[in-house]
Amino acid sequence: MSTRRRRALIPEDPGGRGTMRGGLRAVLAGAVVAGTLGGAVVAGVAPAVLAASAAPGAGARGALPRAPALPPGAHLQGALGPSVPVQAEVVLAPRDPAALDTAVGAVSEPGSPEYHHFLAPGQFARTYGPDPADVAATRAWLSSVGLTVGPTDPDGFVIPVSGSADVVAHAFSTALSAVRLADGSTSYVQSGSASVPADLAPHITSVVGLSAASRYDRDAVVAPPPGSAGLAGARSTPLEPADPLELAQSTGAAGAAGCTAAQATGGTLQSSVAALYGFSDLFAQGRTGTGQTIALYELEGYSAADVEQFEQCFGRSATVSSVTVDGGPLPSAAAPGSGEAALDIENTLSFAPATRVVVYEGPNDGGVGPMDVYRRIADDDAAPVVATSWGICEAANGAAAEQAEAQIFDQMALDGQTVVAASGDAGSEDCYPQGPNATSLAVDDPGSQPTVTSVGGTALSPSAPAGQVVWNSCDGLGASCARSGGRQGAGGGGVSSTWALPSYQAARVLSPCPAGATTGTSDCRQVPDVAALAAPSPGYPIVWDGRWTTAGGTSAAAPLWAALFADADQGCNTPLGSVDPALYALGDAQAPVFGDVTTGDNDFLQTNGGQYGAGTGYDLASGWGSPESGALVAALQPAGGCPSVVGLSAPFGPLSGGTLTITGSGLGGASAVDVGALGPASIVADTPTSITVSLPTAPRPIAVDVTVVTPNGTSPASPVDRYVFGVAHTGAGYVLGAADGGIFAFGDAPYEGSMGGHHLDQRVVGVVADWEGRGYWEVAADGGIFAFGDAPYEGSMGGIRLVAPVVGIAGT
Question: What are the residues facing 735 on neighbouring strands?
Answer without folding.
Answer: 728, 745
